[in-house]
From TrEMBL:
Cofactor dependency: pyridoxal 5'-phosphate
PROSITE patterns for this protein: AA_TRANSFER_CLASS_3
Family: Belongs to the class-III pyridoxal-phosphate-dependent aminotransferase family.
GO function terms (MF aspect): pyridoxal phosphate binding; transaminase activity
Organism: Roseospirillum parvum
Domain of life: Bacteria
GO cellular component terms given for this protein: cytosol
KW Transferase (keyword) present: yes
Name of the featured protein: Adenosylmethionine-8-amino-7-oxononanoate aminotransferase
One Pfam family hit: Aminotran_3
């Protein structure tokens, strides 16, 4: 017999005192628990399940690969699914990102990017370039290097001092960061000056890379950079010989409309990380897309990237990634995102534009966020002691809705927001249902 909620568990759960329901099935955008309750998945878990929960094409590709070859260690062999996926991703990526380092998830992808940046400078004879610059309102993963890069104070706090030398600058966060008398151009110029000054203060010869999410996900609730921001940051990096790492683990793979979110800003990074929707929940999969300049410096130097994971380039995971690309590109799911995003945005505006506890509605494509506030006029966040995000999550589940409320870091303070990242297969009536269930929840 399966219990809806286990009475006791040997799984070391995230929330030790609060055991979750047991999920047993998936049906398109719905998840089903052991008691038969159905949940509309409005966040794809955490922006993962872009194809819903029972995509026959992806499952078929995984099964076929399992029958052929489940695993071959990359220390000895490559595999056809890995070669195919890397070739396709590099063909779709911004120009120059010709090489693809395949791993098992987002933190591994970020960790690989940080180490690629460091090793690149070693190879070209600038070993002092070790320092990373990130933004205060960011999340880049939970491994110690990625955690050090991230600016999420409450996740970092238990593990201080962290391993890497990271400096943090301001996020691009129009709702709270832009002064009332400031336009976007002036705001961008101010943020670019801050990065420029930070690099000068540290000494450019000590800085390896600047890392940022084009649209901030987990810590902020789908906050897009304002127009021109990423371009300005790219220019500052170029001025000082600093690499630009864009972390699209959450916002990439079509979530915001184009396959890569940096296409909105027409910016080409040196390293680009993706995960989550790359395996779309069917397999653990992540990738770091690497500019040929970095690849060639390592290949022409020591010839060996000093990094690796046992399950990297896993054939079954890569077969899933290839099948996800088929669904996005050949079956037209990617093309649905902009229109669906506009529909969901209209629905959210309808329900929440005048809601007293919703301060801001923002995002791009099917990556949308609501910021929850105690007072709309003053933008005062809720008292963290109220645990608003946790309550919203619980109430939403009781209403048959999976959304992604987080108590994030609002430039140093706690603040609550809800992230929505629904599967690209939803119908308009599914999107309406999200609005209604969320309205009931709030
Ligand atoms: N980077 C970003 C932008 C993320 O949102 C996340 C996960 N929320 C990660 C990295 C880490 O990914 P993972 O949980 O797969 O390790």
């Amino acid at each position: 017999m399966t219990l809806a909620r286990p009475a006791a568990s040997h799984v070391f759960h995230r929330h030790l005192r609060n055991l979750p329901e047991t999920a047993v099935g998936g049906d398109g955008p719905w998840l089903i628990d052991a008691a038969g309750r159905r949940y509309l998945d409005a966040s794809g878990g955490a922006a993962v399940s872009a194809l819903g929960h029972n995509d026959a094409h992806v499952i078929g590709a995984i099964k076929a690969q399992l029958d052929r070859l489940p695993f071959a260690h990359t220390g000895f062999f490559t595999s056809q699914p890995a070669e195919d996926l890397a070739r396709r991703l590099s063909g779709l990526a911004p120009p120059g990102l010709d090489h693809v380092y395949l791993v098992s998830g987002g933190s591994e992808a970020v960790e690989s990017a940080l180490k690629l940046a460091r090793q690149y400078f070693l190879e070209i004879g600038q070993p002092a370039r070790r320092r990373i610059i990130a933004r205060r309102q960011s999340y880049h993963g939970n491994t110690l290097g990625a955690l050090a890069a991230g600016g999420n104070l409450w996740r970092r706090a238990p593990f201080e001092p962290l391993l890497m030398e990271v400096s943090h600058v301001s996020p691009c966060y129009a709702y709270r960061g832009m002064a009332p008398d400031e336009d976007e151009a002036a705001y961008v110029a101010r943020l670019a000056d801050e990065l420029d000054q930070t690099i000068r203060d540290l000494g450019p010869e000590s800085v390896a890379a600047f890392i940022a999410e084009p649209v901030v996900g987990a810590t902020a609730g789908a906050v897009p950079a304002v127009a021109g921001y990423l371009k300005a940051m790219r220019q500052v990096c170029d001025r000082h010989g600093v690499l630009l790492i864009l972390d699209e683990v959450m916002c990439g793979m079509g979530r915001t409309g184009p396959l890569f979110a940096c296409a909105h800003d027409d910016v080409v990074p040196d390293l680009l990380t993706v995960a989550k929707a790359l395996g779309a929940g069917y397999q653990p999969l992540g990738a770091t897309l690497v500019h040929r300049r970095i690849h060639d410096a390592i290949e022409g130097g020591s010839g060996f990237f000093q990094h690796g994971h046992t399950y990297m380039g896993h054939p079954t995971a890569c077969a899933a990634g290839g099948a996800v690309l088929d669904r996005l590109l050949d079956d037209g799911l990617l093309a649905r995102v902009p229109g669906m995003g506009r529909t969901l945005r209209r629905i959210l505006d309808h329900h929440f534009a005048d809601h007293p506890q919703v301060g801001d509605i923002r995002g791009r494509g099917l990556f949308l966020g609501l910021e929850l506030v105690a007072d709309r006029k003053t933008k005062q966040p809720f008292d963290p002691a109220l645990g608003i995000a946790a309550k919203v999550k619980k109430t939403a589940l009781a209403n048959g809705l999976i959304c992604y409320p987080m108590s994030g870091t609002i430039d140093g303070q706690r603040g609550d927001h809800i992230l929505l990242a629904p599967p690209f297969i939803m119908t308009d009536s599914d999107l309406e249902e999200i609005g209604q269930r969320l309205h009931t929840t709030l």
